[in-house]
Amino acid sequence: MHLNRSFPLFFALFSVMFVMTGCLNEDNQIPDNCYDGILNNGEELIDCGGPICQACDPCENGQYDVLLGEQWVDCGGECDPCATNYNGVLDPGEGGIDCGGDTGVACGELCGDGLLNGLEEGVDCGGPDCEICPTCVDGFMNGDEIGIDCGGGDCDPCATNGNCTNGLLDGDELYVDCGGSTCPDCMGIITWKVNGSTKLAEDIGVVGSLAGTTIMVLGTTISGEEIGLSLEAPALGWQNGITILCAPATIPTACGYTDVLGVNYTSTFGGNVTVEVDYVDATSGGIIVGTFMGTVVDAIGASVNLAQGSFIVPIN
Fold it and tell me: Is the entire prediction scored with pTM above 0.90?
């Protein structure tokens, strides 16, 4: 009798549990809220901050809030006292601020935490462990400079109106954000595809030269493949936006490709390649920028397809 009385009760409880666990679906689930343990609703931290949740505890926000009287990140002042190995102070026994000694933290590990600690001279820079701090006389465009050693909040204004980080060709730049008196040198780069395989030549593997009115562009990949463009100035001279055709009858204008086995394919044997010159300064010390595509042929009539070619090549 005892088993008979308990079985219906067990069945009823099982039925209730089944109904309860099976009632939620995509339409009636509990919506995102400030108590779900998930970063949502525009929250600053999980379940706090943002437009609808309560403000986050400023002693747990991972920021150095000086206005709260914090001595370091999330400690001191109105927050819990700082531990001696994390207080922004060189305490006795430490080899550097919050590192070395008995702290168990090597000072070099602190070069990327956004704090002035360790043996740093500036935030995450200087000292024996971190990168050299940017200065206005180091010959590099670093910090918040807009040119080499000029502009930004700390250095003198740049000598021109150029801005080496704005994606524009301005000031006395040779090309967009490179060259001239204040920007880094323009680096040569040529990319293209041969029968669908991507090729890349860059930096010292790219050479541009001027012979009379002909601009020679040569790129060599690390595997030894080469691309060459011999571009004769058109009748109206070098201009931005011109189109040049490499074909058997256009010598000295010619385009060629040499594969990894040394087989030479060129427009002088057949096919044709179209070169679009987007920007050109056809002088020694100038630059040529453009795109190319087409077909080149080897000495026995085999061809390869050049596609999606582009180049930025300083002219020596």
Answer: no
